[in-house]
Amino acid sequence: MNPSASRKAIIRTELPSAFTGFRTLLSKEIERFFRVAGQTILSPLISSSLYLLIFGVNLAKRIDIAPGVSYLQFIIPGLVAMGLLNNAFQNAASSIITSKFHGDFQDLRVVPLTPLQIVWAYACAATLRGVVIGLGVAMVGQIFHYTQYGSLLAIHSPLWLLFFAACSGVTFGCLGLCVAIYSRSFDQVSAVSTFVLLPLIYLGGVFFPLSIMPAFWQVVSLFNPLLYLINGIRYAFLGMSDISILPVALLASGFVLLAYTLALLAVKKGNYGRF
């Protein structure tokens, strides 16, 4: 048999086999969060609906943001970003920490999956959940917008929206993976979510523009990476942002690379053991 043909046959055999492992893990993660949709999908949508009702409807007429932009229009993209970021993080983190508790996460050390495949399986599943929540929040926001103004909120740039949604989902899916791998209890994951992630989200411009903050806190906020992701999504919806969109896009790409690198290192060297 021709050696060249033999090598090609081996490559054709190995590629589908490698992809099957990735697809299996990805399918498992997607099925997991759809299986408990009441907790993973419905609950975040109810929370966002309450934010829209309380802030977007009841307070909208008392708060001025910019000419031609109501407060309801301002917070819809902010809540979309918040739902996407938070749920992408929670999807990867909760799945891994639960697997570690049951003792089956260490099985990934012996299955025929590379660290790259493991990272991307968790990141893609996390991104999908984040996007599902983001779409749901956007639909609820459109309902509120229609009841208030008699029209739907037009999206300024669908391409930018896809870009920033993907960057946000992958970044926080990877970060959720890192946190869960190095955590030794549910409390440690919860502490990061409560005392680090949520404050950064709330201070990242979900409910207010950077311009209304005191000068000192405006400077401090520039070191908050979530400010750029939230502003990117808001620009995609409204065409307005606290920061020029090109630097925001470059930083968002950098966040993806950094989070992916950290996740890859965590998968290679992290703690897989049961706690």
Automatic annotation (TrEMBL):
MF (Gene Ontology): ABC-type transporter activity
Keyword Transport appears in the UniProt entry: yes
Cell membrane keyword on record: yes
Coiled-coil residues: none
Regions that span the bilayer: 41-59, 71-89, 119-147, 159-183, 189-208, 215-237, 243-267
Lipid bilayer topology: Multi-pass membrane protein
A Pfam family that the UniProt record links to this protein: ABC2_membrane
Species of the source: Desulfurispirillum indicum (strain ATCC BAA-1389 / DSM 22839 / S5)
Chief place where the protein resides: membrane
InterPro entries given in the database record: ABC-2_transport_permease, ABC2_TM, ABC2_TM_bact-type, ABC_2_transport
Keywords from the named record: Cell membrane, Membrane, Transmembrane, Transmembrane helix, Transport
Compartment(s) of residence: Cell membrane; Membrane
Protein name in the entry: Transport permease protein
